[in-house]
Amino acid sequence: MLEKTPTTRVQALLDTFGAALAAGRIDEAVNLFAEECYWRDLVAFTWNIKTVEGREGVRDMLRSQLAVAVPSNWQVASGEEATEADGVLESWITFETEVGRGFGLIRIKDGLIWTLLTTLSELKGHEEKAGFARPLGAKHGQNPGAKTWKEEREEEARTLGYETQPYVVVIGGGQGGIALGARLRQLGVPAIILEKNDRPGDSWRKRYKSLCLHDPVWYDHLPYIDFPKNWPVFSPKDKIGDWLEFYTKVMELNYWSRSTAKSAKWDDAAKEWTIVVDRDGEAVVLKPKQLVFATGMSGRANIPDFKGRDRFKGEQHHSSQHPGPDGYKGKRVVVIGSNNSAHDICAALYEAGVDVSMIQRSTTHIVRSDTLMDIGLGALYSEQALANGVTTAKADLIFASLPYRILHEFQIPLYDKMRERDADFYAALEKAGFQLDWGADGSGLFMKYLRRGSGYYIDIGASQLVIDGKVKLAAGQVEEITENSVKLSNGKEIAADVIVYATGYGSMNGWVAELIDQATADKVGKVWGLGSDTPKDPGPWEGEQRNMWKPTQQEALWFHGGNLHQSRHYSQYLSLQLKARMEGIPTPVYGLQSVHHLR
What we know:
599 residues
């Protein structure tokens, strides 16, 4: 008898699993999971972004959601073959629920489910008009008085927000708001994006002139439209700005530039928001059913209240307001901070002939860009990955399929390899006095990013300036700002004409406090982090990013953002949650997060 292939073995387990779920035999379904198991669900079952752990976690979720989800038709994905390596069966899968169609990835160890990713791909009856269902565009036949596409678009832009109300208002018109706006547009959800700047992309154009993305192009595509094949690997800021402006136009987004939300208030009886907007000097009141903060992954700029800061006679500003090196020749610039922005700013200042010093107050994780691209990202996001059949969409799902509880276990060996490869580089940095770390458990950059969103630098050249002493380095805590210097607790004093605070940002719920009120901000709680109980990510364990892309404790209030990869990937699931609510589809949320930290 022929040995069963990996694909037939996976399908056999899916058949058994599907039959148990269809019959409501929850215990039987649970017994198909290993004792150590993880089911990560992106909206399909939980109407949440939620990971359940262990058999009891699976059992509890199914008891709550099985009757409403009504899953069926579990299959190895069409055109795919399961694989087997190191005793683990792995396969792309498809399934259906009562209201949607899903896609996922399953890993099976010793005949039992180890990890399961389920994602909602589309809502039945509300599919995107794409492919065979794309709009015709032309109006063939006799249509007296019919409006052209352009005329219909102009009418929509003129009336939305005035004669008709958007279902969603998105505050923030950077890459996050634009990606979400595009998803909502394709789902037929009326939405307005509010952006304070003059043009889409200005949030990039206005940054210091040397800024480039540190992530590679394959990691940074927007939904629907990939960057061109000749796009640079690391995108300069002005190219990103122009791409966002182009994208906003061709995707026909209702994008209100020069528009600032002045206040927002939730009406629990009417189930809608009242948002007062200054639109280029005109007061407009919007009344959406849903409000999304797409202001990045950070809140307001954080400038520590150092003793004596108010008496400094020179110029001082946060890194987010840094204009670049022009105009600082002949001045002594001190940059407080040692992460990405601090390094980029210091390098640009040095290259412009400016006397620049970096103050490192805590350890920083550094990884060289080419090493990160090769070891850390190459298998998923690279030209070679594409040649191997790993599209950006597949890469996103592979990364999403690794539960955060065990993700560090996959990362540690990669960063060990990086440390070994670049041992001479790290030795030179430490000899220069730079204080390095590799994360709380040696898991490196990605875990630091997910846990706290800070504490690292992807080296594109600035580290060599530190090694060579061209960017002067001082380590220690800031004790005091004098009229013309920065004094450290170790007694060192650095003369300064300009101070740049590369000191990070607060939690995104700070924007909620400012726009709505502090009570609502506290009701929502801290945004970002996993509850890993590592520095700047206090426990208890939450298992997903706090408050991001999913329901919060404040009804109809959402957060969207992160890097370009996250904005692209998670905008799909946020848009489907919003679409379902607009259409009146039941969305019983499982595992709505508790609030453990206010900010």
